[in-house]
Amino acid sequence: MPQLQILLFASYADAFGSGSVTVSVPEPATVADVVGALRSLPGGSVLPARPLVAVDRRYTPGAVAVHPGQEIAVIPPVAGG
Amino acid sequence: MIRTAIVTRAIDSATLLAEVTTDGTGATTLFLGTVRDVNEGRPVTGIEYSAYSAMASDELDRIAHEAVGRFDGLHLAIEHRIGMLGLQEISVAIAAAHARRTPALDASRFVIEELKRRVPIWKCEHYVDGTRQWIDPTATHGAPPVAAT
Which of A9, A79, A81 lies nearest to residue B52, judging by beta carbons? Predict the structure, then answer.
């Protein structure tokens, strides 16, 4: 199974204890698969039902396929301003 | 003109105003977000802003271009600061200039609302009692505060 590195920030980084984690997902994998894999890790319970995910720096829906080498980030609720 | 930036230094609003003002701009708005001393009844000492910087820069730029697409002739300069900010310090500045006042006002509102909705920036409030808390605008009740480190 391919391994994907996932970027984490703010409250999610605190919950997972790191700014990035690696998950193994079956191929082909989707954004939703990545979120599912994250939930199984310690700290994964912090994730809401449908967390925001960015692929290559753009918000991306759960059904979209992801591939090794892409920049994948799970985004906590944003609070700029 | 359009300029956007995520910065780690103090924001100089006069610089932004000078950037957007031209002989043809008859109306200029300046929106400033600043750190206030109380949030939901809790005394605040400061806010630590953090960002997914690469995406935040991209998303801020996309918002700015959307604004110029909506309000033809708009001049726009936006900066958002990250790092630890004390009370009254400027976290975000939006300078919008146009020949007419309505587009300048509406563009400023559009940018701050989209920024708060889309740009991956987070704030961790630090309180007088030594605790801190990530702010979650989607939560009806915040998570329990944790000890500041």
Answer: A9
Q: Are B17 and B90 spatial neighbours (Cβ–Cβ below 8 Å)?
A: no
**How far is A77 from B14, CA to CA, in rounded Å?**
31
Tell me if B148 is assigned to some domain: no
Does residue A81 form part of some domain?
Answer: no
Contacts of A59 in chain B (CB under 8 A): 118
**What ipTM does this complex have?**
0.93
CATH of the domain at B7: 3.90.1170.40
Residue B48 lies inside a defined structural domain of this protein: no
Contact between chains at B115 and A81 (C-beta distance less than 8 A): yes
Domain count, chain A: 1
Q: Cα angle vertex B133, ends B119, B54, to 5°?
A: 25
Q: What is the pLDDT of residues A20-49, one digit of tens each?
A: 999 999 888 999 999 999 999 999 999 999
- Determine, for residues A78 and B91 on separate chains, whether the beta-carbon distance falls below 8 Å: no
CB nearest to B120's CB, from A14, A48, A78: A78
pTM for the predicted model, two decimal places: 0.92
**β-strand partners of B48:** B84, B124
**Interchain CB contact of A73 with B (< 8 Å):** yes
